[in-house]
Design a protein that fits this description.
The structure holds 2 protein chains of 2 kinds. By secondary structure, chain A is mostly helical. Chain A is built from 11 helices and no strands. In chain A, helix 4 runs antiparallel to helix 9. Chain B has a domain of 74 residues. In chain B, helix 1 runs parallel beside helix 8 and helix 5 crosses helix 6. About 3% of the residues of chain B have low confidence. The chains are: A mainly alpha, B alpha/beta.
């Protein structure tokens, strides 16, 4: 670490220049902070302490509430399996909704991601429009999209599948675009040099290079959609979420326990299959 | 070292006599007053004049940073240049629009120092992609989408570089020498009239480099292709080129037939 006084250290620009001159130098975060950085760190810690108050973190309340949690858990045991048939059908519907939403979402993410990459977008306007759309899809929660689509197409899994498709486009659109931007530029340069058309370069060099990362992202997206599809049922977008809401509203906790177990097994299965597939593909 | 260089030059003279290919007097490449400046170096190329007739094999030599790679890239407008003009097959490339530039590039092959293949695709798919120089569309993306004649031609190109038996192997599983051979096969698939090669064997070990260079130059000669390659290997310049162009400080410091080159003069370019 340089022996520099706390309030008389080089600016970040100087540090960057020094790093460029000496690439093996330690990054700036290992250097002694300047006055402004030091003040920023203090402000950050202060904000965190304030946030503890804002989030009303009360460990005592948690401690005192533990018996209530135990009572609630006790009411769930033993799980009631009298309605297991309809519940499994709802679970299947949930997974189908997640699968369809993810597949269509992934397919639609590919062209959107191509338009959202700096190197392959036709122009700056399209790039910013595509990036903006991806950000919109990603930042609006899937529950809100589900509400929109319930209003649009009515109650049921179709609304859920549409909501998951949009959510997947937000998730995959961003990561697909980043994978394409990071794809090896060597083959692209070789095809450019031989006079290949831009579309051909994207499909024959960019996508094959980015494919492993895209498959990985798609599988994560399926896991995410399976978990989300449970919650979507709470707003009427079909699936087992609706069964869970009804069971909890009727204080039928043993029934709710069965549904939660079913959801747990489904999510676990999807994660296991996705991991196996990922290992195979990578 | 000097003896080895003299020996290489002698073998090259023999080879050229044996080939005895009558060269047409067409000028494939004409560079006039070419200048290229980068932000930190205003004279990467400083008034380069160069004419390459059809059928010639030209070695461009010079130490690091003298602009050899930049010169080749400028010739295909892969990088923009500051001043001067370049003509390929008597057509100035500055005035070409995107579509015309693509058509022009399709007549020129480029072998890079690193093979620049798609690692996750098979050798055959990478060679099939060479057809994109002639035909656009999905048929040139992958071996599975290619028509039978295209696949057969790609297999023939792989046979010519001695790799037909590993056509369906993924490029990421090939050695450096094999990968560079696949890149050469892709260039053959393009059916170019002129080929630029930027230190094509610099990333290979000496033995593999020797084999690949020999194969590369022989294939280009047999196809009657004009060859312009850069190299740090003076032995390669004397053995495989009919003409040597030496760059120093972004200028042409030496230009003449290989037979007239003195090894000491070539070494002088690196002083």
């Amino acid at each position: 670490m340089p022996d520099t006084p706390l309030f008389d250290r080089p600016s970040p620009a100087d540090a960057a220049t020094r790093r460029a001159a000496n690439p093996t130098a330690a990054p700036a975060r290992f250097e002694r902070p300047g006055l402004l950085h030091f003040a920023a760190y203090i402000a950050l810690v202060g904000f965190f302490v304030w946030s503890l108050d804002g989030a009303q973190i009360l460990p005592l309340a948690l401690w005192q509430g533990l018996p209530d949690m135990a009572t609630f858990a006790a009411q769930m045991v033993p799980p009631d399996i009298s309605r297991i048939g309809p519940e499994l059908m709802s679970l299947l519907e949930t997974f189908q909704m997640a699968l369809v939403g993810t597949v269509f979402g992934v397919l639609m993410s590919v062209p959107l991601a191509i338009l959202a990459t700096r190197q392959h977008t036709p122009n700056r306007f399209v790039y910013h429009a595509a990036r903006g759309l991806v950000s919109l899809f990603r930042t609006v929660p899937d529950l809100i999209w589900a509400l929109f689509f319930v209003v649009t197409v009515g109650l049921g899994p179709f609304a859920g599948a549409l909501a998951l498709m949009i959510d997947t486009m937000g998730f995959c659109g961003r990561f697909f675009a980043e994978s394409m931007e990071e794809a090896d530029e060597g083959p692209q340069e070789a095809l450019t040099a031989m006079g290949a058309a831009h579309r051909d370069i994207v499909f024959s060099a960019v996508l094959p290079s980015a494919l492993p990362a895209m498959i990985n992202t798609s599988l994560f997206s399926l896991e995410k959609a399976t978990r989300s599809s449970v919650v979507l049922g709470l707003v009427g977008a079909g699936g087992i979420g609706l069964e869970l809401k009804v069971a909890i509203d009727l204080f039928d906790y043993s029934q709710a326990a069965t549904i939660i177990l079913c959801i747990f097994i489904l999510v676990l299965l999807v994660e296991r299959c996705s991991t196996a597939l990922r290992q195979r593909v990578m | 070292m000097t003896l080895a260089l003299a020996d290489a030059a002698a073998r090259n003279r023999t080879r050229q006599t044996r080939a005895a290919t009558p060269h047409r007097e067409d000028i494939d490449l004409a560079v006039r007053g070419l200048c290229k400046a980068y932000g930190d170096d205003p004279h990467v190329l400083d008034g380069i004049d160069l004419q390459v007739a059809h059928g010639q094999s030209v070695a461009i030599i010079g130490s690091n940073g003298t602009g050899k790679s930049t010169l080749l890239r400028c010739c295909l407008r892969l990088v923009d240049y500051s001043q001067g003009s370049i003509s390929l097959f008597d057509t100035p490339i500055e005035a070409l629009n995107d579509a015309a530039l693509r058509r022009m590039r399709s007549r020129v092959g480029f072998v890079f120092q690193r093979h620049n293949l798609v690692l996750r695709l098979s050798a055959l798919s990478n060679v099939v992609q060479g057809v994109q120089a002639r035909n656009a569309g999905p048929r040139g993306w992958l071996q599975g989408l290619a028509t039978r004649p295209v696949r057969e031609e790609a297999m023939h190109c792989l046979e010519r570089v001695g790799l037909a038996d590993i056509a369906r192997r993924r490029v990421s599983h090939l050695s450096g020498g094999q990968s560079q051979r696949v890149a050469i096969a892709r260039t053959l698939m393009q059916r170019p009239r002129l080929v630029f090669a930027d230190e094509p064997v610099a990333s290979l070990d000496p033995r593999a480099g020797e084999e690949v260079m020999e194969l590369f130059v022989e294939l280009m000669r047999s196809e009657d292709v004009t060859l312009v390659f850069t190299s740090h290997n003076l032995r390669h310049a004397l053995a495989y080129a009919s003409r040597v162009v030496g760059l120093r400080g972004g200028k042409v410091a030496l230009d003449g037939p290989t037979a007239q080159q003195n090894p000491e003069m070539l070494h002088g370019l690196y002083a």
